[in-house]
Write a structure and sequence with these properties.
Elements: H1 19-27, H2 33-51, E1 54-57, H3 61-73, E2 85-89, H4 116-123, E3 127-132, H5 136-139, E4 149-150, E5 154-155, H6 171-178, E6 184-189, H7 195-201, E7 204-207, E8 227-232, H8 235-246, E9 261-265, H9 272-288, E10 291-295, H10 301-323, H11 333-342, H12 353-360, H13 363-367, H14 369-391, E11 395-399, H15 420-425, E12 429-437, E13 440-447, H16 452-464
Parallel strand pairs: 2-3, 2-6, 9-10, 9-11
Antiparallel strand pairs: 1-3, 4-5, 6-8, 7-8, 7-12, 11-13, 12-13
Helix pairs in contact: 2-3, 10-12, 10-14
């Protein structure tokens, strides 16, 4: 039998257009939100059996779309997100819908109230399309976890190569956007959980500084370091979404190349092909007129230890504060650990060593968290600011991570990323697609200045000079016998 070759990319649909273009079409009645939501639901039906990015669809989405259509027909649109479908990571509370953080322990009674960020989305007229899968508990359960896997949603897969990982923890949000299931999605990040899946799934993400968006109603790791952010096929779409949610305008145009000075950081231990691709992007930026110089930054081990110790100390009070508002859920971290041990699915693939480590901390240990946090944040910011000043650059750029690894039955390999330094510093990060290694996307992250407004024009310029988008060719079946449910 002749090998039919790889599957053809799916044809672009309504939902694959830029969000600003969709908004104009909705305002002019050239397009209805009902048609747009239908296109998204059809794409979910078509490709999600393979990608497994969507954990739950909101049955009220068609009614939300009809309400948006009535507003547009009356000339009473609520703004550029009115009628635009958005998927939400399933650690973000939605009243009456899912909101499990991937854990079967939260799958019983949905929350009674929306997270504050969802309230803002609804006030802007966005259509809550559904919830996306994630690495369970935001990837803060085990040191040997599997990215993109949860006991509720199973294994999310990379839409460009479904035998490969989508990374995490915002795996479902990144994979769904990459596969055209929605024009926008929200995810969360503590360290890398937005930018890393964006990088390996070939989409853009904005990780704002902590506090930019409210985290009330979001299953936490650390209320100090957690943040929410948008993912989209294009950076301008993500910036538009964030501008609506924050109520402040954000730059939407690339900086003139001649005004940009970037420092290219090759992270020690990063996959060589990711470093090479970042260097190729730097060469294209130089050819366009930007200044890109190599920079060296070394992350002190004790700074990283301080950051992890602070996270562990912050986790229990952050989680238990959230759990008090979830009737039917375990009330304490100890109850979560005990319930996981009784559950027939939760611990089948990996353990819960991080949860257990956090549970063993004493009140005295947790009292050290503010000092550890201040020290690690001060040192991380000093590393960034010193590099910016010493090399005379405005922003830093680095490969986000190496390409996605092949999904296997064991724990994921250790992979270097560039996300930890800005995460510890509490600085914003913007991730954009840079190119491909074979069929696998690789992204770059830009960070440095404390204000997102200073960062976005350079990131938009970097995106413009990437290798360009491709459409994932999602096959009709997963080319691997390993299913992970």
């Amino acid at each position: 039998m002749t090998d039919p070759g790889p599957p053809a990319p799916y044809p672009p649909g309504l939902q694959d257009r830029p969000v600003a273009e969709l908004a104009r079409s909705l305002r002019s009645s050239a397009l209805t939100s009902t048609d747009l939501v239908t296109a998204c639901l059809d794409r979910i039906t078509s490709v999600d059996p393979v990608v497994r990015a969507v954990l739950a669809v909101d049955d009220t989405a068609p009614a939300q779309a009809r309400a948006a259509d009535l507003r547009h027909a009356r000339g009473a649109a609520l703004g550029p997100l009115d009628g635009i479908p958005v998927l939400l990571k399933d650690n973000i509370d939605t009243a009456g819908l899912a909101s499990t953080a991937g854990s079967r322990l939260l799958a019983g009674t949905p929350p009674a109230r929306d997270a504050e960020v969802v309230t803002r989305l609804r006030a802007a007229g966005a259509v809550v399309l559904g919830k996306t899968n994630l690495t369970e508990w935001g990837n803060f359960r085990s040191t040997r976890s599997i990215e993109g896997w949860s006991a509720v949603g199973g294994q999310t897969r990379n839409p460009y190569a479904p035998a490969h990982s989508p990374w995490g923890s915002s795996a479902g949000s990144a994979a769904a956007v990459a596969a055209g299931m929605a024009p926008l999605a929200l995810g969360t990040e503590t360290d890398g959980s937005l930018v890393c899946p964006a990088g390996v799934c070939g989409v853009a993400a904005i990780k704002p500084a902590p506090g930019t968006l409210p985290t009330a109603g979001v299953v936490p790791i650390s209320t100090v370091q957690d943040t929410l952010g948008p993912l989209a096929p294009r950076l301008a779409d993500a910036a538009l979404c964030l501008a609506v949610l924050t109520g402040r305008p954000l730059p939407a145009a690339p900086a003139p190349p001649g005004t940009v000075r970037m420092g290219l950081w090759h992270v020690k231990g990063m996959a060589p092909d990711a470093q090479e691709l970042a260097e190729r992007l730097a060469d294209r930026l130089r050819a366009a007129g930007a200044t890109v110089v190599p920079v060296e930054i070394t992350l002190p081990r004790d700074m990283l230890v301080d950051g992890l110790d602070a996270l562990c100390a912050e986790f229990r009070p952050s989680l238990e504060r959230y759990l008090r508002g979830r009737p039917g859920a375990p009330a304490t971290l100890d109850e979560v650990i005990a319930a996981n041990r009784r559950d027939p699915v939760e611990l089948t693939l990996f353990g819960q060593e991080l949860l257990e480590r956090c549970a063993e901390l004493t009140d005295g240990d947790r009292a050290l968290a503010p000092a550890l946090r201040r020290r690690s944040r001060r040192r991380a910011r000093a590393l960034i600011d010193t590099a910016l000043a010493a090399y005379g650059v405005d922003v830093l750029m680095a490969a986000t991570s190496g390409p996605a690894w092949r999904i296997d039955d064991g724990p994921d390999p250790f992979t270097r990323t560039s996300s930890t330094l800005p995460a510890l510093a509490g600085r914003p990060v913007v991730a954009v697609p840079a190119g491909f290694r074979g069929e696998l996307p690789i992204g770059v992250s830009l960070f440095g200045p404390p204000a997102l407004e200073e960062l976005l024009p350079a990131a938009l310029l970097a995106e413009r000079h990437g290798e360009g988008p491709r459409t994932p060719a999602v096959p009709p079946r997963v080319p691997s016998p390993r299913s992970r449910r």
